[in-house]
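Hello forum,

I keep getting stuck at the same step: I have a sequence, I want structure tokens, and every attempt I make locally crashes halfway through. Rather than fight my setup again tonight, could one of you with a working pipeline run this one for me? It's a single chain of 292 residues.
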Amino acid sequence: MTHTTRWLVTGAGGMLGRDLLDVLAGEPVTALDRAALDITDAEAVRAAVAGHDVVVNCAAWTDVDGAESAEESATAVNGTAVADLAVACARSGARLLQVSTDYVLPGDAEHPYPEDAATGPLNAYGRSKLAGERAVAELLPDAGYIVRTAWLYGEHGRNFVATMLSLAARQENVQVVDDQYGQPTWSYELALRLAELGRSGQAPPGVYHATAAGRASWYELARAAYELSGLDPERVRPTDSSAFSRPARRPGFSVLGHARWAEAGLPPLPEWRESLARALDRPAFRALVAKH
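Reply #2:
Ran it on my machine without issues. Output:
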């Protein structure tokens, strides 16, 4: 008799969490958003994990700039709570998929970062997420999966692509930095890969990089979003990071390598522009373009 995987998704009300619920539709899933589960409550976390086979932690402190002045609070969510989650999974025998970030890396490379690259966060948010990664690696060496992603956009939350399309309806031109490079990643594609990783019985634990193939600057992403939406890409104007003063330093290079997926018997994510074209055909993005 085939065992049915029982899923727990924390942070289920966020952009990635909602996409993951769509992907897992029809499977036994417990979906807990922020109101249903305080991820920093260790007792509540332990009770929530019980009875599940795979836990996908989409809950996180995501305010990068806010973390600079509230690092302790950010680490409570992104570090300490993840450790409690890992302990709960170890006790119950569940596997844990911990969603992490490129911000744990120093962002100064010239070639894609492999999964075993040395970490070195530039800011408080990155340090808080690295604390979570280390907890998973230490407490769940045989059942912990650290899935790093970056430059996420999707239908169900605030993100760069939605912001650019919204700005197009309000102003003629937009200025976008052209000196930061990464891999624009559709949250739905990431959700598909998380589900496949959770279902896999042969994927070795450890770090996986789940970003789209290829690379782009924010400027190139904005131009592509305009072009693929039928807007004039010449309305996007390049600038550099010095034009935008923010509390948290941003990595200049967030391009990740994807070699580890072969060990799991799974393909890496598709090329970023292909995914962007598919995403922009979804209702939420079409609605933004229709306002023009």
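The chain has a mean pLDDT of 94. If your local run keeps crashing, start a new thread with the error log.
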